[in-house]
Write a structure and sequence with these properties.
4-stranded antiparallel β-sheet, about 170 residues, 3-stranded antiparallel β-sheet, Arc Repressor Mutant, subunit A, alpha+beta
Length: about 170
């Protein structure tokens, strides 16, 4: 019954094609030896394929284990914080140029996040309810970094990341 629920979610909620699901199940059973992949594996999907994590590597099970193109996706998935049940609870935003590899991604700060439990899911400075949009609006209106640091009780680096986050969003 649980397997049918997962299968229905992959098909109807996430829009994964049945051919991709069949390929993923076949790959997980024959190549990785997973007896019941729909309930034994923690799967992720982008709506096009099925991904599983093995030995710290993201594997595209829907396309027979391809890994070469997945490093960038893996870098982005690493910015998602999950609770013990595996449910996404927070997303750390990239505030600088979009990374092209793991090293570039890991060097980016985790200063700005979206958390549905904080500020209605708006981008905020981590550890606060300070909205990046509010900080950027005040900066654009002429407030200095020093003024913003004093008013919000955050570090200059955090204020600068909040501004960078909003300015890069507007440019995109």
């Amino acid at each position: 019954m649980l397997e049918l629920h997962v299968l229905a979610a992959l098909r109807h909620v996430h829009g994964v094609r049945m051919r991709v699901i069949r390929n993923a199940l076949d790959y997980l059973q024959t190549k990785l030896g997973v007896a019941r992949p729909l309930i034994d594996e923690q799967m992720q999907t982008d709506g096009k394929t099925i991904l599983v994590r093995r030995l710290d590597q993201l594997i595209d099970a829907g396309h027979q284990g391809q890994t070469s193109m997945l490093e960038l996706l893996d870098v982005h998935l690493d910015r998602i914080e999950r609770n013990p049940a595996g449910i996404a609870t927070r997303l750390f935003l990239f505030t600088r140029k979009s990374p092209r590899d793991r090293h570039a991604a890991e060097s980016q700060p985790r200063t700005i996040a979206i958390d549905p439990a904080v500020a209605f899911g708006r981008a905020v400075i981590v550890g606060s309810r300070v909205s990046t949009a509010e900080v950027a609006d005040r900066y654009k209106a002429g407030d200095s970094i020093t003024d913003l640091v004093q008013d919000y009780g955050r570090t200059a680096a955090e204020i600068e990341e909040a501004i960078r986050c909003e300015l890069s969003l507007k440019a995109a």
